[in-house]
Design brief:
Largest sheet of chain A: none
Structural class of chain A: mainly alpha
Oligomer: homodimer
Shape of chain A: globular
CATH topology of chain A: 434 Repressor (Amino-terminal Domain)
Strand content of chain A: under 5%
Amino acid sequence: MDKHKRTKLEARGWKIGTTAQFLDLTPEEAAFVETKLALSHSLRARRTKQQVSQTTLAKRLGSSQSRVAKMEAADPTVTIDLLLRALYALGATPRDIATALRRSGDLMAV
Amino acid sequence: MDKHKRTKLEARGWKIGTTAQFLDLTPEEAAFVETKLALSHSLRARRTKQQVSQTTLAKRLGSSQSRVAKMEAADPTVTIDLLLRALYALGATPRDIATALRRSGDLMAV
DNA sequence: TGCGCATATGTCAGGACTGACATAGTTTGT
DNA sequence: ACAAACTATGTCAGTCCTGACATATGCGCA
């Protein structure tokens, strides 16, 4: 199971580089990364809109500031479970998540 | 961190009993469980529709039949990450996930 | 009935993730 | 310029999750 290393590279590629290096990703891998990125972006959007600091959100979650930072950076050590928990802690609904995912799909289609 | 035990009870409650025992769930917990259930149902629907056995899907995932069974049962030892990976392995797109979540939200609203 | 196939459930060693801490860089207000 | 608040990144021990295995149940069919 090398998903750890792969995802690390992928996440960096998306963040630092352009959309280019998606060529060596299987559709499943791309979809998974895409999902993670959509959620992490959604998380930061919600948090900043609500004027909540990473530290505050961390306390609410029973977590730490550093982990929240990693969530928003789509760090490979962060799971989608954790991202969802954070989003729900910020008042998101499954419907909101659905919307965020649908939008991400539109982006990918470009 | 007692989420393990809690989620176990919650999942069973939803599966075995009725919608009644949702009273002792915070909105965030309810949303999380709801998400998990929506995905597990979606997984089984996709798999059966494609006439794929749990064993076959397991091989495709590099996993085992027992784990696929637990995925579809929304077992507490299964993460949303794993559920998503399985769904994507069955050809689902983030858009499909979004649709599944949106529908689950509608159900909850009843 | 007996056999093969699909699914459900329990258990466990090993690897992945978590929260916490340390530290550095960045932004904002004075 | 300085401090305070906020955010980014690395590391690590303890815990959770994973795949694998064993086993049981159910189902169709010869």
